[in-house]
Write a structure and sequence with these properties.
Blueprint: H1 2-23, E1 26-28, E2 33-34, E3 46-50, E4 57-61, E5 65-66, E6 69-70, H2 74-87, E7 95-100, E8 103-109, E9 117-120, H3 121-128, H4 145-154, H5 161-174, E10 185-188, H6 192-204, H7 210-215, H8 217-231, E11 235-237, H9 253-260, H10 263-273, E12 275-279, E13 285-287, H11 288-298, H12 300-313, H13 316-324, H14 341-360
Parallel strand pairs: 1-7
Antiparallel strand pairs: 2-3, 3-4, 4-8, 5-6, 7-8, 9-10, 10-11, 12-13
């Protein structure tokens, strides 16, 4: 009997340890090795680090602080968007709180395994239409739903158009304004695209050929990558990632209180100021609410089904618990990095309003 008891307690301790790891919401990654040779894109301070326990790669991001932009709480928006999205049934990449040598930010595990490749939307769009140049302001107006849908149809993956729509519905709920061509993509087992990207990045480091690369290589690169894309068959839509430009992250603390106690300002923010990176046919950014009408017009059955699912999943108390306890795991030494109560309350009010807007679109 004694041996059975010891065995039981041993198994229980293993399960408890595993459960703690699964539930862990704060990571100190100060001792993790940074992979500086692995480049990351975007405007935020990012780094690739390796977990010494299992060798897996993770991405660590802080908040934007550049010139007049100081979005102190942006990493919190990323984490909260992740948890709210998952609570509402969206396939969102999981983000957790992390400390890297005294800097607080968000941590996410790499989406693709060693034998897999993440192919971002930019590769599909530029391979479909090589006149589309995202790095040029003259092409900004071309980033439309039609461009995205036509590109996916061209590569025989139009079944994932609904995944694009679903991502944009999630963007509406959180108010994400930065769903550009590199913030969505597909994961596949082929490494062809990864190889091309490595060649591209290597050549860009050679000063002599920089000018030639700017003129010739992008078109050649995307043409060849487009050929490989057509050859690939096993695709899955990547989890929704890079969602930090949301949940009032750009509003400073002084304005939070004013908005919180002014329903007109909150409604104006939700209906008029909140815009998507996706463009209308005439080149302007869609207001988020306008984009919802457009998706409904394009695929009413899918839209109604998705909104019904979201409304059924919406639990105001559960979301309140997520937001209000999000920073509980952060050690007291980082108290200055915690989310102010009023900001949390504004986040919840805006999410509630957006859910109401979606509910009304069913009528």
């Amino acid at each position: 009997m004694y041996y059975f008891f010891v065995l039981f307690m041993f198994i229980l301790s293993i399960l408890a340890t595993s459960f703690q790891k699964l539930m862990k919401t704060y990571f100190d990654i100060s001792g993790w090795e940074e992979k500086k040779h692995l480049q990351t894109k975007g405007t935020r301070d990012k780094s690739v680090v390796q977990n010494p326990e299992n060798g897996e790669m993770y991405y660590f991001k802080t908040s934007i602080k550049k010139d007049k932009k100081d979005y102190k709480y942006e990493f919190w928006s990323e984490i909260i968007a992740s948890k709210i999205g998952r609570a509402l049934g969206f396939n969102v990449l999981q983000y957790e709180i992390a400390n890297k040598s005294g800097k607080i930010g968000c941590l996410s595990k790499a989406m693709n395994k060693e034998n897999e490749t993440l192919t971002e939307g930019i590769s599909f769009l530029t391979a479909y239409d090589n006149s589309y140049r995202p790095d040029s302001k003259s092409s900004y107006s071309l980033y439309t739903l039609d461009l995205i849908c036509n590109a996916l149809k061209c590569f025989n993956i139009e079944r994932h158009i609904d995944d694009i729509y679903r991502t944009l519905i999630f963007d509406f709920i959180i108010g994400n304004s930065d769903r550009h061509q590199e913030n969505w993509g597909f994961i596949s087992e082929s490494e062809s695209q990864s190889f091309l990207e490595k060649v591209h990045q290597h050549l860009k480091k050679i000063p002599i050929v920089k000018k030639v690369i700017r003129l010739i290589l992008p078109r050649t690169y995307h043409f060849v990558s487009g050929w490989f894309i057509k050859k690939k068959e096993k695709y899955r839509f990547a989890p929704i990632y890079d969602n930090g430009c949301c949940l009032c992250r750009e509003i400073n603390d002084d304005k939070i209180s004013l908005m919180l106690h002014n329903p007109q300002k909150i409604n104006a923010y939700v209906d008029n100021q909140s815009k998507s990176e996706i463009r209308t046919p005439d080149g302007n950014k869609y207001k988020h609410i306008e984009l919802m009408y457009e998706i409904k017009k394009r695929n009413k059955d899918f839209f109604n089904s998705e909104i019904n699912r979201i409304v059924a999943s919406y639990d105001e108390q559960k979301l309140r618990e997520i937001v209000y306890t999000i920073d509980n795991a952060l050690p007291n030494q980082f108290a200055a990095d915690k989310l102010p109560k009023e900001r949390k309350e504004l986040m919840l009010k805006i999410i509630s309003l957006r859910i109401d807007r979606l509910r009304n679109l069913l009528k």
